[in-house]
Design brief:
Layout lengths: L2 E5 L6 H13 L4 E5 L5 E2 L5 E2 L3 E2 L8 E6 L12 H10 L5 E5 L3 H6 L14 H7 L12 E4 L2 E4 L4 H11 L12
Helix pairs in contact: 1-5
């Protein structure tokens, strides 16, 4: 079975990944964490993760999906060309891309959101400031799926995880995640 690549970067949001990762585990879907380097990556709540591989060393043939989380300050990744290049390179090779909170900004930088409906956890001012998010394709919905791309606002992390699991045709128990 092919793997889901989880792209990590400084200040990644751990909670936004929690349900998606649980559903991947329930569905028996292998996961590989990917960083820009092999250095430890500290999340926004202080958890540190050591990536399994890097954007340069990952075997793309083993990947069929990509998962991105938001971070405290997505604009701090403005000059992380390696991350954006990786997203652009993998887009045509995967069946599903899940991007939550502020991380759709990285998809837009990589050209993945061009012409696609999306949502994002950014204020209108920050969306405008980005200069790359298509205003006409923005949706206020909590979770939006357009083709292979699933985007969500951070508070929609449960619905986002379920949508990702369905898109990957995984067998999981949705009742685990109901309030």
């Amino acid at each position: 079975m092919k793997k889901t690549a989880v792209l990590l970067y400084p200040q990644y949001s751990e909670y936004e990944l929690s349900v998606a990762l649980s559903i991947l585990m329930q569905g028996g879907k292998p996961v590989v964490t990917v960083g820009r380097t092999m250095e430890p990556i500290r999340g926004e709540s202080g958890l540190t993760c050591l990536p399994d591989t890097t954007v340069d060393e990952i075997n793309i043939d083993e990947i069929d999906s990509l998962l991105l989380t938001g971070c405290m300050d997505i604009f701090s990744l403005e000059n992380e060309k390696a991350l954006v290049d990786f997203i652009g390179k993998i887009e045509s090779r995967v069946t599903t891309i899940g991007s939550i909170s502020s991380s759709p900004y990285l998809l837009a930088k990589a050209g993945v959101l061009k012409g696609k409906r999306y949502t994002i956890g950014m204020t209108e001012e920050d969306r405008d400031k980005s200069g790359i998010l298509e205003k006409e394709n923005f949706s206020e919905d909590l979770v939006v799926q357009d083709g292979q791309v699933i985007t969500a606002r951070g508070r929609g992390f449960i619905k986002f995880g379920v949508c990702l699991g369905r898109a990957l045709n995984l067998d999981f128990d949705e009742n685990w995640y109901k309030e």
